[in-house]
Amino acid sequence: MRRVVITGMGTISALGHNADSAWKAMREGRSAIAALEGFDEPTLRVNIAAQVRDFDPAAHFERKKLPLLDRVSQFTLVAAREAVAQSGLDFSQSPLGHRTACVIGTGVGGEQTNDASSRKLYAEGSQRLHPLTIVRRMNNAPASQLCIEFGLRGPSFAVSSACASANHALAQALALIRSGSADVAVAGGTEACITLGVLRAWESMRVLADDTCRPFCKQRHGLVLGEGAGVFVLEEYEHARARGATILAEFAGAGMTADAEDMVAPSVDGAARAMQLALDDAGLGADEIGYINAHGTGTPANDPTETRAIHQVFGDHAMHLGVSSTKSVHGHALGAAGALELVAVIGALREGVLPPTANFIDPDPECDLDYVPNTARESAVGAALSNSFAFGGLNAVLALKKAG
Amino acid sequence: MSESVQQQILDIIAKHGDIDTSTLKPESTLTDLGIDSLEAIEIIFDIEEHFDITLPEQDPDFDADTAGGLVKAVEAALAAKSDGEDDSAA
After folding, report:
1. Does the annotation count A60 as an active-site position?
2. Are residues A154 and A42 in the same domain?
3. Cβ B18–A64 below 8 Å, yes or no?
4. What is the pTM of this model?
């Protein structure tokens, strides 16, 4: 089977506007969760979020291009530029562009455009919407914008599975390269979901924390919404080796399952099967895994369920691996979550440092694994998993190996 | 009106196309001016917002027609609007 490696990564999130600043903050357990900005709604109970700060679209895009770009596409392009630059690939060189796929996950797509349109129609009573509303709003806009900017002419589409969108997108890109449909893929996840409509909807579900995100600890109160994008250049191994590319990590496998049980309640079995399938797909034994970047939302339901699933898959080895949730620092960026977290996994593999679960106070008896509380730990890791479990019971787990 | 309808329309086109207003003529077509179809619908939207009117769906053909044709269409829409307002005012 064709092997797939990662030769470029880029990200923008509350932690910063590039992968290096994100990884540094993750390693230091420096949380970017802060007071919610930009909403003059005194009745809003959501008071914190992990928002992308100091982002000036005009600094990144031409004035004439901006009307086509929802914030979600802006994030995607900024992250992709970093990833593509790092890879050193030039897609304008035929036939590379034709052999390059583009798969971008997003949960809610052009939500800022959607929210602004609703406001215009229902609050302002306007009879007309901006003519670019459709092409800004559609879920494939981020993928299409990447194709246009870089000349990617292979298979391209959006993937949507709520909080697992990024991992599902990366898994699809892996499959496209393995099957020979593409030699390279630009893939990841993106989300710009912090609008009044989305905040109100999450508020009603009563799963948002009001203090901060404290995954796996006794005092956890729920999740904190985030936003951002993570984009990666995936490349067939021989293709990367032949050109002497720097390999960040090997993308060794993926496992995907559906719980087929409940729209919101997580399932031990669905999560465990996805982890086991990822191990099998990567040809890894459970005892080879040194780190799991957990889904770890910080909700009362997710964290004990995920803990039990890890016990089920790893048996005795479960107590000998580090499990952390970096959502404690970058929030839950829904469709971008798995992409931001892949930066943590790559950092752990490359530097032999496990990023901590920040904001951790006291252990919860129901969550009894090693969550690397608050302080990073040096640990040579040869292989790692990255978990994403979505509302709707859709699970996607990625398996990564250290390069070389 | 302090500025003619024509001038206001030419200003909107100039702003979109990064075109010097002085080079814009009523007989210029949007194609001549290097404005693509996506920009053309943005221009129509801005004109509709600016004058608070709704231009007809098909007529005129803004790709082939001229800025002058656009002015006529806007004037017709403004006249229809003003008639409507006269009717409703009492």
Report:
1. no
2. yes
3. yes
4. 0.94
